[in-house]
Amino acid sequence: MAGLGGVGRAHGLDKLERRLDRVAHLARHGSPPDLSAGELVALAEDTGLRGRGGAGFPFARKLSAVMEGRRRTGGRVAVVVNGSEGEPGCLKDTALLLFAPHLVLDGALLAARALGAEEIAVGVTRADVARSVRRAIDERGPLSTPVRAVLLAERFITGEGTALTDGLNRGPGLPSGRKIRSSERGLNGLPTLLSNTETYAQLAVAARLGALDHRATGDPAEPGTVLLTVAGERVVEAPTGVPLARVLALCGLRPGQGVLIGGYHGTWLSPSAAGTALLSRDDLAAYGAVLGAGAVLPLPEGTCPAGEVVRVARWMAAESAGQCGPCVLGLPALADALGQAVGGGGQRALDAVRDWMRAVERRGACSHPDGTARFIASALAAFPDEFAGHAGGAGCGRPVLGALPVPGEEAYGGKAYGAASAPAAGGGRHSGGRATTATAARPRAPEQRLLVDWTLCQGHGLCADLVPGMVRLGPDGYPERATMPLPARMRRRAQLAVRRCPALALRVQGGE
Q1: Distance (Å, whole) CA 238 – CA 223
Q2: Given 266, 278, 415, 425, which residue has the most CB atoms within 10 angstroms?
Q3: C-alpha distances in angstroms, 217 versus 29, 213, 237, 282?
Q4: How far is C-alpha 60 from the geometric centre of its chain's CA atoms?
């Protein structure tokens, strides 16, 4: 662990040599203040605090949404700490929960007391992390709000909001497939404040410092510090707005062939961009990137970029929740098509990769297909000559060193190039004449929509016959879209499709 200048008043992880127990934690940080719900919202607004788990959602808006939900449930709410960290290139939340668990609990208890929450649940996926959190809970003695640490399945999708709450509710830990806000229904069906481990630690730091002192560190437009995992091995705390090159230099690294920002749902920066980029939302947005969960992965010169990307694509496909066609069929087909291209499959294979990327986008039960397609699209844009050379059979002569961390390759048969042939785009089980082209004339904003529940859909294809012109099947045999406008003239057919769907995966939403 390391820290850049200006972070001494924050987490101070660079000074930790051992786990801080309750006594050592209080000696270093002191006791946090008690804040009302209104004061907590004001603090989050004044410090510009955002979630640190990937989406970067404003924390004040989350708090306000839970407070609104609390009014609907007679005051019953819950708090969830997302410590699952399924991203292979991330260790920051693990570092916090192993070395400074009381800082995280401070933030969670601060929020719970302000909201009047009846429970705090901490979801983790490592046994050593679970032990550390449970030990910290025991060190605190009796608490006004019960806290429990739950060991969940170690998967990439475990940290998705609905999957996390499902696991904490003793379910299988799968995404719901519907846009359910945790602020409306989360832990035990209650309005839930759900945020990332680092977010709660940042909240605890800001509460102790106060908004003015907190804003003295980092970018004025985005004050404070950020935790980064560099090269999948080292956790760095840095002021926001610091140059990426400075963080890499602190770790003895260079941009190499490029730097992946934001992990395996992230974006590649070229070496020149990595040399000038600042670690702030606004600056990274200029490169089409977001910091996400704080993963910074430079690619060394000695490894094959195309082979590294194929390894990750295969692992991401294997990490599917297994409950929707775009994930179960689309991602393996995309990974196989990429392997075919890198193995010398020519331009046709590269075209198939792009076809499969389009086929999975905006169609999954969660964001996993979208993020995987974005990672591959960014790699194709960042290393065009590499992929073109491999597709043409020239290769690059470099080995695949495994610079991008991928756990358990043997479990899914990971290899650099080549695989079973990917299905040709447009050649799915229900492609061709069964899916007609949508008509060009669109009615004005219909009041109803036909929805597909990806967690139930099994790709029967019957809906394309019953509502032609509305439902079009993708190359994997599943509907291309999860939501479709429902014109008045098609409502009777749509209701028939809803009744006849063998998997009960269709429903009509809205209208009178």
Answers
A1: 11
A2: 266
A3: 17, 8, 12, 17
A4: 20
